[in-house]
Design a protein that fits this description.
transport, MFS_dom, 0% strand, Growth Hormone, Chain: A, 401 residues, transmembrane helix
Length: 401
């Protein structure tokens, strides 16, 4: 088997950065097509939303255990198999008219994408050390954030020019190109195989989840990203059915949101040396100001532009918070990079899937006020988690005699 060495680690890292956005593309590229899918598949809004939720649940749950599998059996071959399975699943979605079969394929996609993501995230822990490792892991979240910028924007044009199936043609082609490049240039990164022992894996999970700053981070990540998912679930119906714009406008709205998220992540990288807790609390406080202002001014505006002003501000701060805590959690347990990376991302996505679907369904988002309510709920929950984190960080340390 070919391994990643000093000679090819640069090209392998570049390939990893090219593959990392695939999870965001798989999640977001078809968002502008939600209304069209409802009509073409003769199904309900909640069913089409559930195609995203089931992906999130599968993606999140899978990452809880695929990390330990990859720590024991390697990253490279499993990553290649997952890329191939992802291609096949997209072909099945393209050819079916059954929403139930799409549910199954989206669940499969969540699983294989989790394998791909854990494999590629682990590369930066396996191959790099010290400041370079911190640099790459911080950059990782910024690169991942590029998908929410590009995917719905691209999906809007694909829907406008073709139909909703064009999104899945794109995903299959993207994965096929990445598979060819991986076969030619990349390789295995795991230097030391750890025998798979279930009891040992369970103890590792217990140790990580028992470390409260890490466990709190998973919840904060999930609640933060729920803002982006709620927007993705609700914006197409608001923009296309209420304001009667085309899917292209949905793509532009998602593009604005994604750029805000990306810039927030970049700012957090620039301020990486600043106090960890202070950065989080300031950003969360500003989120509260914008969310409340969004609610208070709802009666003054009936425009998608007013809604997007607040969405951009809130998602910028969300990207800032997410990148700070994601980098922290990802590097918290370097000796178990696969497990910690899977638990960080997977646990976060489980939290996201639960809260985003519940809030989008219960609040019934159809205007600026209901959008604001959903954001206020999430901001309050994040604030409560940060207050709990503060009490943990400020706890007295026992003196050992």
């Amino acid at each position: 088997m070919r391994y990643v060495t000093d000679d090819n680690r640069k090209i392998s890292a570049i390939l990893a950065f090219l593959i990392i956005p695939i999870s965001g593309f798989a999640m977001d590229v078809y968002v502008p097509s939600f209304p069209a899918m409802v009509k073409d598949l003769h199904t309900s809004i909640s069913s089409v939303r559930f195609t995203m939720t089931i992906f999130l649940i599968s993606y999140g749950v899978s990452q809880l255990f695929v990390g330990s599998i990859m720590d024991s059996y390697g990253r490279y071959r499993l990553g290649l198999i997952s890329l191939f399975a992802f291609i096949i699943s997209n072909i099945v979605i393209i050819t079916t008219h059954s929403i139930e079969l799409i549910f199954v394929m989206r669940a499969l996609q969540g699983f294989v994408i989790s394998m791909i993501m854990v494999s590629k995230r682990s590369l930066f822990i396996d191959v790099f050390t010290g400041d370079k490792q911190k640099h790459y892991t911080s950059l990782l979240s910024v690169v991942w954030s590029s998908a929410p910028v590009i995917a719905p924007f691209l999906g809007g044009y694909l829907q406008h020019s073709f139909d909703w199936r064009a999104n899945f043609y794109f995903l299959a082609f993207y994965a096929f190109v990445m598979l060819l490049l991986e076969l030619k240039y990349s390789g295995e990164t795991l230097k030391q195989i750890r025998p798979f022992h279930l009891s040992s894996v369970i103890r590792t999970y217990q140790n990580m989840l028992g470390t409260k700053d890490f466990a709190y981070g998973i919840i904060v990540l999930g609640l933060s990203y729920s803002m982006a998912i709620i927007f993705g679930m609700s914006a197409p119906f608001l923009i296309e059915n209420i304001f009667h714009y085309s899917p292209v406008i949905t793509g532009y709205a998602a593009l604005s949101s994604g750029i805000a998220l990306l810039l927030g992540g970049m700012l957090s990288k620039y301020l990486i040396a600043k106090d960890f807790y202070s950065k989080l609390t300031w950003a969360n406080s500003l989120q509260g100001v914008f969310a409340i202002s969004m609610f208070a001014t709802a009666h003054l505006f009936t425009s998608i532009f007013a809604i997007m002003f607040f969405v951009i501000a809130l998602h910028f701060l969300m990207g800032f918070i997410y990148n700070i805590y994601f980098t922290y959690c990802l590097t918290r347990f370097p000796d178990n990079a696969g497990i910690s990376g899977g638990l960080t991302s997977g646990g976060g996505y489980i939290v996201t899937s639960i809260f985003s679907y519940a809030i989008a369904t219960v609040v019934n988002i159809h205007n600026q006020q209901t959008f604001a309510i959903s954001y206020i709920i999430l901001v309050i929950l994040i604030a409560l988690m940060l207050l709990t984190l503060r009490s943990y960080l400020n706890r007295p340390v026992p003196v050992v005699n």
